[in-house]
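Checklist before submission:
- one chain only
- standard amino acids only
- sequence pasted in full

Submission:
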Amino acid sequence: MARIYDNIEIKFEDGLNDIISNVGVKRVDFCVGYFNLRGWTKVVHQVEHLEGDFVVEGSESIHRTCRLLIGMYQPPAELVKMLYAQGDNTPDADMVQKVKRQIAQDFRHQLLIGIPTKQDEWALRQLSAQLKSKKVVVKLSVREPLHAKLYLAHRPEDRSNPIQAIMGSSNLTYSGLTKQGELNAEFGDRDQAEKFNTWFNDRWNDRFCVDITEELVKAIDESWAAEKLIPPYHIYLKIAYHLSEEARNGIKEFTLPPIFQRELFDFQQNAVKIVARHLNNDRRRGAMIGDVVGLGKTITACAVAKIYEMTYATSTLIICPANLQEMWRKYIRKYDLKAEVMSMSKVMDIDNMRYFRLIIVDESHNLRNAGKRYNQIRQLIERQSSRVLLLTATPYNKHYSDLSNQLRLFINDDQDLGVRPERYIESLGGERGFMQRHGDVHIRTIRAFNQSENVEDWSELMKLFLVRRTRSFIRENFAKTDEANGRKYLEFSNGARSYFPDRVPKSIKFKTESGDQYTRLYSEEMIALMEELALPRYGLSLYISEKEATDAPKHISALIENLSRAGSRMMGFCKSTFFKRMDSSGFSFLLTLYRHVLRNCVYIYALDNKLPVPIGDDNNLPEDYTEDEDTGTDIFGRHDSDTPVDASLNIPTDMAVYMKKAGEYYNVIASKSNLSWLDARYFKRTLKQKLKKDCETILSMIALCGKWEQKQDQKLNELESLLRGDAHCNDKVVVFTQFSDTARYIYYQLRKRGFTNIDYATGDRDNPTVIVERFSPNSNDATGKYTTEEQTRILIATDVLSEGHNLQDAHVIVNYDLPWAIIRLIQRAGRVDRIGQQAENIYCYSFFPADGIEEIINLRSRLNDRINANANIVGSDEVFFEGNEQNLRDMFNEKAGVLDDADDDNDVDLASQAFQIWSNAIKADKKLKEIIPQMQNMVYSTRLADENGVEGVVTYARTANDFDVLTWLDKDGNIISQSQQRILQALACHPETQAQQPLDNHHELVGKAVGIIREQAVSNIGGMLGNRFSTRYRIVQLLEQYYDQGENLFFNADRREELKYAIDDIYNYPLQETSKFHLGRMLKQTGRQADDDIVEYVLELRRNNQLCIIADEDINDKENQIICSMGFVKNNMP
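Returned file contents:
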């Protein structure tokens, strides 16, 4: 009776190995429909021990050990077509070659399924060796589909039973041998076995049975199971090749109009195409160009707009700061763009605006605060479903929330970004810790990233949207070298050169004497008086009468509630402004004190006369507030350009003078419509007392300073000497200051001292583009427009010119005052250190007291300590001096490099970085352009770890939803990093880097990494509702109570069942942001009707798929694709 192998009671693997291992068996023949390369692991040992025998094939006697005939090669659809086709289906030579290529591709694909193991690798290498030695020969039957499963074991010395046969349903696959239910029977009858043998030989010797042994060898030897070690450099380049896919495809897909091909450098053209690719991605819908100052973001954006215009026959809207509108209009005219320009501060009629497919937001960092103008722009983008291009050299200022708000212009709060803030999640102890703290936040949204302050998290997010290159990156990768002097330069299409100049810090030391006006400014007494200030106008909520407020009408209660929101932050800004204007000039400082006393007196006047108190100007942060305030307004917002130019500035110290003016100014602002008012009766008496005390203190500060004598202003005198001196008497010079008061002061004083061809640019000047053009015509396409006599030689400017303007006709800048952040000085240098700069050196002058820098450092340090001693005074947005006094010492000592861009590879976006690695490699070795793309996925290599490096494995995989993930595990399986930029840096190597033998658990670590990636990709932490005050927790509690009440007339079984599903969804998935917002508001209502409304609303939201963020179920059924891996081992050589 035949033996049965069904993989249920008896494994077919056991039966097959039994007949192969029988005594006397010399060779085997297998005929199967399908063959899985990894299934060979089950027979590799037994086949290896066979000695082989001669067999007649045609007219030849050939030594064979294992012959494998495969019968099924057609895809299912093609097979059906073939079975029902009419006529002769006999294959021709072309079809045979096509089939061989197809089967080879199929075997390659087999090797990419699942997780590699060390056992599979060994077996596949054995199979490759057996195929190469012809111990195993594989043919493919292409005459017709062959679905037979026949296994023959030949033992020629057995006279009674020379052939053992098994026939049935099992293919030579892992599942067919071990897992799925099959039916296979062993045949011991000699006659039957001979007939099986004859049948096999007839198919084997058919002329349409083609040998594919070499194709199998190639499939294995080009896979992760190859015996030959792969160079680590090739794995490094494979990673760079895949990570740069967006960049490479964008560069291939888009063609620039001829004018931009002529005018843009290669790095700018690359940016245009990469950005266009980002914008066309339906999952992103936006991009950011964050190149550092001076690399041509504006012209790059113009090229993007032109591509969109030509591709989609649509228009572009450019939203920019008011002072850049005319500059943009010049570009629109130059490149004939179908575009409109609009100021950021302009009120929009969203309902009646024309359609714009692309919206460009220039200097987008100005929208880091989500105020009225921000919300208006965001509504426009949402309404028109526009693509958005953000332009900024400073994507974030002090906090990553700055960056988040910019991205949220085109990213929905609930949008699944495919990446998570991994470092922040780790800091909380994992996903469960994240959900416990942020139960209402989906873990892969922009709101999840808002919780993180980790640079690695934000770098991972920004790689999806940001194109950012630094000057050093451009210099290293795109610049040529002048053989004559060794300097780096970029070459224009007409052959002209733009060199990279050196920034040379220079210090100007001005003398101070004991008792003079500067030493009085910086005295301990002055600082002590500042510290006494209570600044009550910025903390009005502290002076509200609880008795009066209790019975206040609703609209008054709302005003009172809003008082405390920004008060403490404004107190901090006010104090910092005192200190910074003191640093700027005594003139500006005294004006600030004067205005502050006058504002206080207006409040005192209102309180004395029981009049409404103006509360709308001081107690809300202005949306366009900048750290270094450039305002040219009087105390009530009116432009005040009448800067005193007399020999001295004498600020009154008599309180009566201010109180006399207070009534007049109160009547002026009473007619203004942009202020809120609160009746005087709502304030405590202590408010007036504090205001008067502050006035007395400030008047003491004014008296201490005394008159400001212009001729004794040593700082101004040194500036005059510099401008008249031999070194720069004929050079164009830009003088930067933080404050418009200081700018006008310098301007008028220099004019009074005989300087001509001088101008100033502040926030209140009309059309700064014309001012800039007259100063720097060559760099603003105005060459020849102005004679030398008509051009401006000296330009005094606030940081209003630190955005968007070209000033590179000059190569000398002067920092009249020193910002407390070194980055501001670097940005100022970047205004003249731009493409097209002809000078070899950029001279950056800064003022310091001749006595030395330590006094300034000590003063700033003391102020920094005092201000930050009370966090609620300064507020979280203020950062003073950055704790880096060494920068000041370096500038004082004129140390080279102190004002260079603080950039490195970490500041370059990942796609650009990866593309440049790939581009540089194929330029150096053109053969790599063919080698790397043809490398199969899942390949790996191992290299020596760097000194102090850890042993482990980096796995690069692409998730089911097409996101790239790199995971670096140590040899024990612990995560080292998932930061792509950090890992790419760690992987960096060169063509000569030697491959090493892998870790014993290399494949095991790859498998663990893939498991981590899959878990991250599809995880939704169920049962974590956050704290008991969260919206999600309270909604579930309410719905469960409602559900437990059972059925009634108005709540039948179907609706109760629907509610159960809604509860399950909320319990298992985060709420969508919109639904959470509305449900949170509804929870404030009480009563049975309110509960009924919430239940109805929840059910409606669920029916419309608007309740929860539910992951794509298809992802669970998809496999993560392993691209490659790199191991690190330590050098154990003595």
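Reviewer check: Residues 919 and 926 are 10 Å apart (CA to CA).
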